[in-house]
Each structure stands twice: as C-alpha cells, then as structure tokens.
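This part of the workshop introduces the protein records we will be handling. A learned vocabulary of local backbone shapes supplies the integers on the structure line. Getting from the letters to the tokens is the skill we practise here. As an example, a complete record with its sequence and its structure tokens follows.
=====
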Amino acid sequence: MTLLDRLLPIGGRRRPDLNGAVVVVTGGARGIGAATARLFAQQGARVWIGDIDPDVAHTTAQTIPGARAGYLDVTDRASWDTLLTEVTAAAGPVDVLVNNAGVMPLGHFESEAEATTDLILDVNVRGMLNGMRATIPAMVHRGHGHVVNVASMAGMIPLPGMVTYNASKFAALGASLGARREYDGTGVAVCAILPAAVRTELSSGAELGGALPTVDPEDVAAAVVDTMRTRAARTSVPKWVAPGWSLVDAFVPEPVERLARRLAGDRRGLDLDADARRAYTDRLDRHASAHAEGVAQ
C-alpha cells in the first residue's frame, strides 16, 4: 500500500494510517500547535514544529517522541524555504501542513498600534498564504497532500475587541475555501478549522465563556487530525457552533441578536485583565517591533 493509499480516507469513516507521514505544524511551540504536533506523533507521523521562538519549539519537540523543531517566521518566504529544505532533506516531502501560527491582540480598535495591525494581518493571513504557496505545488506534483488552516470562529462571528483579528480570520476562512476549490481534483485537500474560545495564552486576561463555548487545545488538535478522515471543508470546534451561527446569521433579526449578545457578554474582548494578559502582550509587542523593523529593512 502506498503512502497515498494510506493518507486517503476509506469510505469516509476510517482514519487513514499516518505512520511515516511527514507533518509540519507552524506555531507548534505552544497551545494548539503543540497539542496538534503531539497527537500527530502519537499516530506515527514524523512531526516538525516550525516556530518563531525556536528555543521554546525545541523544548516542546523534546517532549514529543520523534519530533523535531526549527525556526520559522511564517511571514517570510525565505524562512519557509529554509525550513522546508531542512525537512525534506531529513524526512522527505511534506504530506501534511498545519497552518496554525497566529496572533490575537485584543482591545479597542482605535487604540491598536499600526505595527500590531501589520503583525496580525501578516501572521494570520500572509503567513497562511505563504505556507500554502510553499507546500501545495509539490503536493500537486505528487498527486496527494493535506493542508489544514487553523482559522477561528472569529472568522464567522464578529466580536468587539477583535476588529483586525476578525478581518484576518474571515480572510483565512475565505482563502481556505478558495484554495480548496482551486485544487479540487488534484489529490490535495485544504481544510479549515474554526475553534471557539480556546484555553491558551492567546485568551489570557479575557473572561472565557458567554458568547462562545470554551474548548481545550487538545479538542482542536483532535479536530485537526480528524480532517485526515473527513476532509471536511470547514469544521468548527465544537462542531455545532458554525452551523448554529449560520442559522442565527440567516434568520435572527439584528435587534434580537444585539440583545442576545448583550446577555451573553460579547464585549469580553474589551474588558480585559491587563496583568493576567501581560506576558502575552509583552511577547506580542516584541514580535511586532521586530516584524516592523524587518519590513522596513
């Protein structure tokens, strides 16, 4: 049985055999990415973690049997080329790409620094596009491959405190669906994952629950790996959220929705605990400054 035969779903029910598949997970040093890398490795895949924080990525990889890690700035095509050259030389061509790297600054739109806006759009949108552009052509040439773009329910549900983040995740979902159609019939599947609120550092300082259900990184990782079986275009975590919102968006009048949002507390992206969020925001500020300097050069 070829690797292609093992990667393709059988009857739409049985998970394909991932033993030996080469999987690259971006933003895999922490949170959803680390949980996803760990679950793929448990399925027998040869996992590579790409992250802008290589020391943390290497530490995470050491906790995952067989995993390896390397530096990756998803906004930089040269960085993609460097990592994928290393992966291919050591393990072979990439079978599965998980575009997970993302940033989530929260707060009032008018107070958002331009460098922060640039970072959100470049990481969450351009980074994902760079990953697809760097891997899909070789997948098409081989006649098989699988790409999972980790978007967000913020790519369907607009929320206060997330204007630019909403924009980036609406774009991520649209690009995923567009690429899925463009590469239909090539053997390459492009799937989008839309988590609700996730208990990771990205949501630190925000009161979880309310307008969105809360899930763990392991829940999202399970959904990512399950796309190897379903090859679904779009999967929300929990699964009912995206279909439920589609009904609300189509049939619920805006005044009723406005009242429901108020009762559910949908302004939690504005009401933040700055101290609880400080470690993440400080790291984001460092990345934003470094990114702005790199773009200016």
User: Anything to note?
Assistant: The CA atoms of residues 27 and 101 lie 4 Å apart.
